[in-house]
Amino acid sequence: MTPDPDQTLLLSLLGAGFATAFLHAALPTHWLPFVLVGRAQRWPLDRLMAAVLAAGLAHVAATAVVGGMIVAAGLALDHWAAGLLPHLSAALLFAFGAFYLVRSVIRRPQLADGPPLETPEPAVSHAAAFWALVATMALSPGEVLLPFYLNQAESGVGALAVLTLVFAAGTVLGMALFTGLARAGWSVLRLERWARYEGAVLGLALIAIGLLVALYRS
User: Fold this and answer.
1) Distance CA 100, CA 199 (A)
2) How far lies 66's CA from each of 45, 73, 124, 195, 217, in Å?
3) What is the pLDDT along the chain (218 residues), one digit of tens a residue?
4) Least C-beta-crowded within 10 Å: which of 17, 131, 153, 185?
């Protein structure tokens, strides 16, 4: 039996969405603050991972809210220009991919050796530090994930909910993995040095996804 092209595309986008969310979580902004705050607060691993989980879910929730607004606007636009939405989605994927690819070439991270991280007495309460991390991630939705919502705007609430769950899994897993590795003693500079290639990988992946969307929608 020949698979349904729409179902195949959805499954492909879910897989690509998970990979994109995981790669996006490799950015130091998604794990380095947790390592530093955890050291300063002298948090045990369970409390650190609880902060990662709460902040990761808040990050995806904020992304879903913005994505929902984009879906509503996209559907309104598609009502006036039938057939434009899939092309707009592919164009956004291309644009985001090109942006990350060009930025990775122009703005290479400059790494320098510095003094070892110290662990002074906690300056704030554990609750304040915890919720500050959550708020930081909640106020910065993952813009790189937004085109996926637009692409699935006509698939219904169920597909968008599954997409959000996939983003949550990829984001939380990536944040927890890199935070855990850094806490376990991996060199922070080595992980940051790897992150200089994250933009290029992410950009190329988004461009490839845009090609996939354009081919399936053509």
Assistant:
1) 5
2) 32, 11, 32, 26, 24
3) 455 556 676 677 788 889 889 988 887 778 888 887 888 788 999 999 999 999 999 999 988 988 888 777 766 655 554 455 556 656 766 776 777 678 777 765 444 444 444 444 555 688 888 988 898 888 878 877 877 887 777 777 888 889 899 999 999 999 999 999 888 875 444 555 555 566 676 667 667 766 766 665 55
4) 185
